[in-house]
């Protein structure tokens, strides 16, 4: 620019005077948010134009203070600000929303009609409900965790919400979302004293595009099972926990679950379920070709929680228990009953009972991978291990390993691959005989 | 209308102050506004069409615009949607040099590029102003544009407090 050609003493070249607000705004698309804020110091009119600018959507406001007075001051300033912020996050922490601030918020709420509160920022930072009413309706993601009693909620609508997490809310808050039709993700944790699930049932019926569903409920009613089994959505991920559960589902509910699984068999990828759902449902689960991640969380006999995590193979000839936990023998035998053609068994921890169960239910076992044995007494040698072709053990329990690969040549499998971490002399002798 | 015809017909445009300029059809079609106008005329209308009046562009600015469109007539131009995602990793040195002009001319060029709907020229010219602002203090920006500082110290303090909340997204 030929600045020397401009007589700065006589004329102002303020772009605000030469350009329309839209064109003035276009200049700032080339500047960073930090530079944009710097420009707001230039003059009152620049401050005003920038505050109204589309570029404000690039500015993220985060308010957090350690003292109530500082918080009150910032919130009052925020509500009275001339800028049209679009992305505001307030962390109240353990502090309260002061009455005076709330009054200011009420008076200024009209101005905030188009402001979006961003996503999970409501998590710990509930605004007075009147403000939320004017702000959060456009947000595509909402995560509310509070025990706030809502009074004036009728103006709230969340028609286009895509992702919703409700955590132990009052029924009044649940009701806010009854109009949602576009949910993709819905996670729901029930409050202990809520028994009326009709709102949730309606939500499930209305959102046929749902892909991810997580339900943590006190006790699953048959009505809810019915709703889930009839829903039109095609889930990729389904998590289901009922935390006052019976160890086993009632048979009617098992049938409803089977119906649900039938509907989801061409889409479900991840399934987490915490109730023993019966062999029939399990057979269906193992036939879901899209499923690559399955976990059970079994509360057996109402006491101990046994967890089994299986990365199932589409053509289910393989069990992979990838957590270092003690498997419940009843659960494991039911699993193996449901999938009798297991050829590959992989586990982090194998117990005495597991070996017996494997022997009983896996006549075709060819490959065995064990990281650690938890075996107090040696089980008798099993002929079923004589079919093994691959065996890997990272345990140094020589006796168990020798039991499986067998000292007896006639009973020994024809191994193609052995990976072992055992070092005794006798063991080496056996190994050398295998190699020879 | 066949805009790919081998010969590039002449087109005339008239500025707001009555000056007539001649350019080629291919050049003038870089203006979305004029392109829409010509498309409404239909097949074969270009040759018989008279000079196109441009009420919102004066002759000094129109001359600059024509210089730019004639230079860029063979380049593929981004649409206004595409330009939103454009990053300034490379600016044609010809354009850099072209935009070395007085501020008032630059403002007129921005307004004309907007009226004529030439997204690339609008992007370049607004960027030129932004680059003048970039890395300057508020006082330096005031000096650059000869803007009066109309803040009170209390008001400036209030803006400073608000700016403390703001962080980059």
UniProtKB/TrEMBL annotation, chain A:
<feature type="domain" description="F-box">
    <location>
        <begin position="13"/>
        <end position="59"/>
    </location>
</feature>
<dbReference type="InterPro" id="IPR036047">
    <property type="entry name" value="F-box-like_dom_sf"/>
</dbReference>
<protein>
    <recommendedName>
        <fullName>F-box domain-containing protein</fullName>
    </recommendedName>
</protein>
<dbReference type="InterPro" id="IPR001810">
    <property type="entry name" value="F-box_dom"/>
</dbReference>
<dbReference type="Pfam" id="PF00646">
    <property type="entry name" value="F-box"/>
</dbReference>
Automatic annotation (TrEMBL), chain B:
<dbReference type="InterPro" id="IPR036296">
    <property type="entry name" value="SKP1-like_dim_sf"/>
</dbReference>
<comment type="pathway">
    <text>Protein modification; protein ubiquitination.</text>
</comment>
<feature type="domain" description="SKP1 component dimerisation">
    <location>
        <begin position="120"/>
        <end position="166"/>
    </location>
</feature>
<dbReference type="InterPro" id="IPR011333">
    <property type="entry name" value="SKP1/BTB/POZ_sf"/>
</dbReference>
<dbReference type="Pfam" id="PF03931">
    <property type="entry name" value="Skp1_POZ"/>
</dbReference>
<feature type="domain" description="SKP1 component POZ">
    <location>
        <begin position="11"/>
        <end position="74"/>
    </location>
</feature>
<dbReference type="GO" id="GO:0006511">
    <property type="term" value="P:ubiquitin-dependent protein catabolic process"/>
</dbReference>
<keyword id="KW-0833">Ubl conjugation pathway</keyword>
<dbReference type="InterPro" id="IPR016073">
    <property type="entry name" value="Skp1_comp_POZ"/>
</dbReference>
<dbReference type="InterPro" id="IPR016897">
    <property type="entry name" value="SKP1"/>
</dbReference>
<protein>
    <recommendedName>
        <fullName>Skp1-related protein</fullName>
    </recommendedName>
</protein>
<comment type="similarity">
    <text>Belongs to the SKP1 family.</text>
</comment>
<dbReference type="InterPro" id="IPR016072">
    <property type="entry name" value="Skp1_comp_dimer"/>
</dbReference>
<dbReference type="InterPro" id="IPR001232">
    <property type="entry name" value="SKP1-like"/>
</dbReference>
<dbReference type="Pfam" id="PF01466">
    <property type="entry name" value="Skp1"/>
</dbReference>
């Amino acid at each position: 620019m030929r600045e020397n050609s401009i007589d700065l003493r006589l004329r102002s070249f303020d772009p605000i005077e030469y350009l329309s607000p839209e064109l003035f705004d276009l200049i700032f698309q080339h500047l960073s948010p930090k530079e944009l804020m710097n420009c707001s110091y230039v003059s009152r009119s620049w401050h005003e134009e920038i505050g109204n600018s589309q570029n404000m959507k690039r500015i993220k406001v985060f308010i957090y203070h350690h003292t109530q007075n500082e918080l009150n001051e910032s919130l009052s300033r925020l509500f009275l600000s001339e800028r049209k912020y679009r992305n505001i996050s307030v962390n109240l922490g353990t502090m309260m929303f002061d009455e005076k601030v709330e009054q200011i918020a009420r008076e200024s709420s009209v101005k905030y009609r188009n402001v979006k509160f961003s996503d999970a920022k409501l998590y710990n930072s509930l605004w007075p409900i009147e403000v939320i009413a004017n702000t959060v309706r456009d947000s595509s993601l909402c995560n509310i965790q509070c025990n706030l009693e809502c009074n004036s909620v009728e103006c709230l609508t969340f028609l286009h919400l895509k992702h919703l997490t409700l955590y132990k809310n009052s029924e009044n808050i649940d009701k806010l979302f009854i109009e949602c039709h576009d949910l993709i993700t819905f996670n729901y944790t029930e409050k202990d004293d809520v028994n009326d699930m009709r709102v949730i049932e309606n939500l499930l019926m209305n959102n046929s595009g749902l892909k991810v569903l997580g339900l943590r409920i006190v006790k699953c009613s048959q009505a809810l099972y019915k709703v889930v089994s009839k829903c039109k959505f095609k889930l990729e991920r389904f998590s289901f926990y009922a935390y006052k559960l019976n160890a086993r589902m009632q048979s009617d509910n098992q049938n409803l679950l089977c119906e649900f699984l039938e509907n989801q068999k061409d889409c479900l990828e991840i399934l987490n379920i915490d109730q023993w759902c019966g062999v029939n449902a399990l057979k269906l689960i193992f036939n879901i070709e899209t499923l690559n991640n399955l976990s059970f969380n079994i509360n057996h006999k109402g006491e101990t929680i046994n967890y089994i995590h299986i990365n199932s193979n589409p053509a289910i000839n393989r069990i992979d228990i990838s957590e270092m936990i003690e498997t419940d023998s009843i659960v494991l035998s039911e699993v193996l009953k449901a999938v009798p053609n297991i050829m590959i068994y992989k586990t982090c921890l194998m117990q005495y009972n597991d070996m017996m169960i494997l022997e009983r239910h896996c006549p075709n076992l060819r490959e065995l991978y064990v990281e650690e044995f938890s075996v107090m007494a040696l089980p008798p040698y099993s002929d079923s291990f004589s079919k093994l072709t691959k065996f890997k053990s990272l345990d140094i329990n020589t006796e168990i390993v020798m039991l499986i690969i067998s000292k007896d040549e006639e009973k020994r499998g024809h191994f193609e691959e052995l990976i072992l971490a055992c070092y005794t002399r006798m063991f080496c002798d056996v190994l050398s005989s295998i190699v020879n | 209308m066949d805009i790919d015809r081998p010969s590039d017909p002449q087109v005339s445009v008239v500025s707001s102050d009555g000056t007539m300029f001649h350019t080629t059809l291919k050049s003038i079609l870089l203006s979305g506004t004029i392109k829409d106008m010509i498309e409404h005329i239909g097949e074969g209308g270009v040759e018989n069409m008279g000079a196109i009046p441009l009420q919102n562009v004066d002759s000094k600015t129109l001359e600059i615009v024509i210089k730019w469109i004639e230079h860029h007539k063979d380049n593929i131009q981004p649409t206004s949607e595409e330009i939103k995602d454009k990053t300034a990793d490379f600016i044609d040195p010809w354009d850099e040099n072209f935009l070395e002009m007085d501020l008032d001319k630059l403002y007129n060029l921005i307004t004309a590029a907007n009226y004529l709907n030439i997204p690339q020229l609008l992007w370049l010219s607004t960027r030129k102003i932004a680059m003048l602002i970039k890395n300057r203090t508020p006082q330096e920006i005031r000096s650059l544009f000869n803007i009066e500082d109309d803040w009170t110290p209390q008001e400036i303090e209030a803006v400073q407090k608000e700016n403390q909340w703001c962080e980059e997204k």
